[in-house]
Specification:
mainly alpha, two-stranded antiparallel sheet, 10 helices, 2 strands
Amino acid sequence: MLQGPYGSLERDRPLIRLPFTHFAMGTVLLALTGMISCLVFSLLYHFEQSTYTHCQVPNYLPSISASISLVPECYIWRCCIGLHSAPRYLVAAAYFSFYRSRFAKRLLDLMLSVLALISSLAENTGLLLLTYVASTEKYSIHKNGFIVFIASSLLHMLITCRLWYVIKRYCINPEEVTSYRWKVRLFLFNVSCCLAAAYFFRRHNKYCEPGIYTLFALCEYLVVFSNMIFHMTAFWDFGSKELIVATPPEDKRY
């Protein structure tokens, strides 16, 4: 046995051991904290700038794109999303591994699992794109990033609800049933808010009515908040799992 200042048991102990629920919740809370901070800063210190539109009519809430394009809001948002994005890729991989074990003998659902992984990665990449390219810097790139984020987010939610419908049919775990029910509710709510936001955005641009852009901004907040809560259902999905950094058994020295 190799000798050293620590015994083999001490050396082989996990360096990090974190409940996956804490990891997933912390990841979502980073984005939530960044968004709320940007909105508060915009309302308190940049109200006129953040609520201004080409129609030049009264508005009372800033859009998310407007609030994350100002200084120091853009730095707060980029910091929070930068820290948020890397764990999101890991969570996407964890879900794919989970689905692959559940649907090993179901080809259609296994293919949907692959599509869920791709849409989750695209959603996170779109979020990074709209975050680091502000609407005031390069609007077309920011707009495309937003479109990728919303489209892939809705696709990911839809596929996830389908996969968890199958899981629910064959499970006896009440937490998985609860997770499925909340996923469906949040998906339907998210779709409703997306449609309402699109309606108010189009109406604002067409008629330039006072306050309509405020309703668009409010619906936009609800879209993002419901998306965050949807991802927080990982609390039920991985309740007994842990994130561990340790030496693999085959690499241990005795």
